[in-house]
Amino acid sequence: MALPPLAEPQQLANYTAGAIAVSDPRAKTLLEAASEAARRYCGWHIAPVITEALVLDGSGSHIIELPTMRVKTINALIEHLPGRNGRTHEWTPDELADLEWSRLGTLRRRHGIWTDRYQGITITLSHGYDAAPDVAQTVCQIAAMALASPTGATHEQAGGVSISYGTTASGVAGGLTLLDRDRLALDPYVIRRP
Question: What is the pTM of this model?
């Protein structure tokens, strides 16, 4: 499933006070790349709310961790039971209602334990944020920094006139990079497990 970028070209144009136009052909591609970098760093898609089926390894305990930080609903669950005969159990609505789950992605069985099989659980759920304005702002920062010096130049001089570009690391400009400030802004969305 192709996800939309976490920020739109209009947001980038607003962030840069028009220095990067909505019509700039690089904007959409860079916003998509910056969104993917943010999602990869956080370990999940963040926004928008989507419904998808996830295949998870069984834990062999009463808890499994879902790769999300914002569960909305658990819609269906199929568990591949231990043993060689390949039996599966599709959970009924009553069984699903008996599960305990946190919005942060912890799913607990009240009775029994989860299978210990690899790829032993298929769960269909709705998860994510409707919108994440702070993440959109960070994605705009990342994209704007990448566009600040697309050739990677850190300094240019012509006669007595010189210009220095923003750098992403010592002596490095341009490119798509998550800076420390970006990571700090994204940290509340990073999947953290004990």
Answer: 0.84
